[in-house]
Amino acid sequence: MLFRVGVVVPTDAPPVFDALLHIEAGRIVSLAPWPVHKPPGDYVDRGQWGLLPGLVNAHCHLELSCLRGVIEPTATFSDWLRRLLAEIGRYTEAQRRAGAAEG
């Protein structure tokens, strides 16, 4: 499928503005500047949309996985954090390691 996209920001190259993006089976096949003439076939025009690389959340707290479903939502982040800190103190290191292993 072909897309016209306002900007594509690759991880290993400068941004491509007004880009022609070809995607097949969920993968990028090609990326190029929008051609002077309309490409053959159908395409989806995404106007000024931007496409960024999939960003990875490298910051996580696997040792807190043992608390999944234990702490109820609160009105504020600070209230939730107080409950989390109080609760995690009740768990042994072995329990936290087991939670981290389960992810």
How would you sum up this structure, described in words?
The chain folds into two domains: 2-51, no CATH class; 62-102, no CATH class. By secondary structure, it is of the alpha/beta class. Strands 1, 2, 3, 4 and 5 form a five-stranded mixed beta sheet that branches. It is elongated and about 65 Å long. It contains two helices and five strands. Strand 2 (16-24) and strand 3 form a beta hairpin.
Describe the SSE topology.
Blueprint: E1 2-8, E2 16-24, E3 27-33, E4 44-45, E5 50-51, H1 77-88, H2 93-102
Parallel strand pairs: 1-4, 1-5
Antiparallel strand pairs: 1-2, 2-3
Shape: elongated
Please, how many domains?
A: 2
Mean pLDDT: 88
Classify the secondary structure makeup into a structural class: alpha/beta
Helix content: 10-25%
How many strand segments? Answer: 5
Total helical segments:
2
Low-confidence stretches: none
Structural key phrases:
103 residues, alpha/beta, 2 domains, 5 strands, elongated
Short description:
The protein has 103 residues and is an alpha/beta fold.
